[in-house]
Amino acid sequence: MKKLYSLMMAGLILAAPGAAMAMDSAALQADPAQYRVIYAGEDEVIYADMDTVRGMQTMDYPNSIENMRFKMYVESYRDKVDAADFGEGRLVTQIREFDAGLYVNKNEKSYKLETKLAAVYDADGKAIESADQEESSDALKIRAKAKDLYMNLYHLEQLSLKQAAEQAAAPADK
User: Fold this and answer.
1) Which of 107, 111, 28, 97 is nearest to 68 (CA)?
2) Where are the domains of the chain?
3) Distance of CA 10 to the CA centre of its chain
4) What are the pLDDT tens digits along the chain (174 aa)?
């Protein structure tokens, strides 16, 4: 009985992270401090999970090379929206989760975005598993330019650092 109990607990522990990782549209919009919009286009919005942003910058002047790694969510919208879709909130077709890397060389003015598709969800956060190769390759397409993503993410990260420093320097309320 103890073996069965410990096996069940191990299963719950292993299953819990997968269940907690699902992303839905409401969660992206509910916490704008964590999920920041870094790009908005006609048919997609790109969010960066600010809790996962990790960066590296060279020490040479003027800090010519920067690398950023973060979790990115791309929320895709319907091409044609009718009144029923709008009224019932069926605008989002899917949410794609990527492990992303932005690589910038300021001396050469080159910007590169690398993405690895981690998961695809519907608007309610249910995982979509696609075996269709064409659909999988289409899921990797991101219409935003790497330079736009970098500029927006860089400014948001600097703003977060400034706010954290101001909060640390502010006297505590008594």
Assistant:
1) 111
2) 23-169
3) 29
4) 444 334 334 443 334 343 345 788 889 989 988 999 999 988 889 999 999 999 888 777 666 778 889 999 999 887 777 776 666 667 888 899 999 998 888 888 888 889 898 989 988 888 887 655 555 566 667 767 888 888 888 878 777 777 777 888 887 654
CA 79 to each of CA 25, 60, 137, 142: distance values in angstroms, whole numbers, following the listed order: 17, 46, 19, 16
Cis status, amide bond into 171, omega within 30 of 0? no
The predicted model scores a pTM of 0.72
pLDDT tens string 133-144: 555 566 667 767
